[in-house]
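Lecture notes, unit on protein representations.

Consider one protein chain, 139 amino acids long.
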Amino acid sequence: MSKNDWKPWIHLGDPEQTLQRIMELRGTTGRGGAFVHTPATDVFENEQGLTFVLELPGVPLENIRVEVRDGGLHVSGERVFSGQDVTYHALELGYGPFQRSFMLPSDADPESVSAVLKNGLLNVSLRRKRPVHRRITPE
């Protein structure tokens, strides 16, 4: 690779493309002209089932939607910017709409979904369906 092939800096030509690239690097994507934040998430499983833990500090429960549909878990909502009459020197928290979607395994039980918001963390849990064992007697 020649020294001219490496370009570590974002090209600062078109301002909209630059903003899009910066938002992508921060875990935010443009959807239909609006930026959608993707909150950090831990996903794990144990004997009880699957658990998804999403970071949603400052988001009230009424601004969060949790759905299980089309074989996936979909969490969305909005963190509203208060717009206080102050001078901001840094603004790094994600404001506006957010969305995360995860494909679920085929044995996830959509009827068992539960969600709890505590200390800025949304814990979404689903149990796995128990396998059906059938024994037949040959005739």
